[in-house]
From TrEMBL:
It holds the Pfam family DUF679. The chain crosses the membrane at residues 43-64, 76-95, 139-165, 171-189. It is a multi-pass membrane protein. It is found in: Membrane. This is Protein DMP2-like. One of its GO terms (biological process) is endomembrane system organization. Keywords: Membrane, Transmembrane, Transmembrane helix. One of its GO terms (cellular component) is cytoplasm. The keyword Transmembrane helix applies. It comes from Dioscorea cayennensis subsp. rotundata.
Length: 210
């Protein structure tokens, strides 16, 4: 008599485990979905952050700062280089691209009247109104500029050149905090631009749609 009761208890316990497994599976699926959304937005940072500018900055900074051992001439030279890099950072943020019905890709600069194409001024996108300059583009440009200045200011050679007494903990923590905040803002407020260097194959997805 005792054996059937034990079996019954075991069976009921097994049903509870199934329910818990189903709930755990649902939570895991929801978590994966949220992570995919975050990663999808983060993957677009290459158009909002100055990737090309950062690359050139990383290459030329050791040369212009003499590996951190700066003279007055190096100070001025590096200041000019940071200014030019900041301007290029903002400029690249305002670039966009479109594809014609024939499949040819054109790049241009977003303006208040539409897109000004570089390689063919006579070509227009299928829907010109979608490419007009908006206040959101200015917001993204400012975020991109802050991201670049944070990167530039925390560069090892720049720190040695301008403020060698700055604690190493500051140069390590500040870029992480600023990068995290900007990344969150980029995910929450994604850009509509597909500028120079941005892969056109990522034109549409579940999170970002023009």
């Amino acid at each position: 008599m005792d054996q059937p009761e034990s079996c019954k208890v075991l069976i009921e316990g097994h049903d509870d485990d199934d329910n818990e497994d189903d709930n755990a599976g649902a939570d895991e699926s929801h978590l994966i979905h949220m992570l995919n959304m975050i990663l999808s937005g983060t993957a677009r940072l290459n158009i909002l952050l100055p990737t090309a500018t950062i690359l050139s900055f990383t290459i030329f900074t050791p040369i212009l700062t003499n590996d951190g051992h700066c003279t007055n001439f190096n100070h001025w030279l590096m200041a000019v280089f940071i200014t030019v890099s900041s301007i290029s950072c903002i400029f690249l943020t305002f670039t966009d691209s479109f594809q014609t019905y024939s499949g040819k890709l054109y790049y241009g600069l977003a303006t208040f009247t539409g897109i000004w194409t570089f390689n063919s001024r006579r070509k227009k996108p299928p829907e010109p109104s979608l490419y007009k300059l908006r206040w959101g583009d200015v917001f993204h440009a400012l975020l991109s500029l802050v991201a670049f200045l944070t990167f530039a200011g925390s560069h090892f050679d720049v720190v040695l050149c301008y403020y060698p007494a700055l604690p190493r903990k500051v140069t390590n923590i500040v870029p992480l905090v600023v990068g995290f905040v900007i990344s969150v803002l980029f995910v929450v407020f994604p850009s509509r631009r597909r500028g120079i260097g941005y892969p056109f194959m990522l034109k549409r997805d579940a999170v970002y749609i023009r």
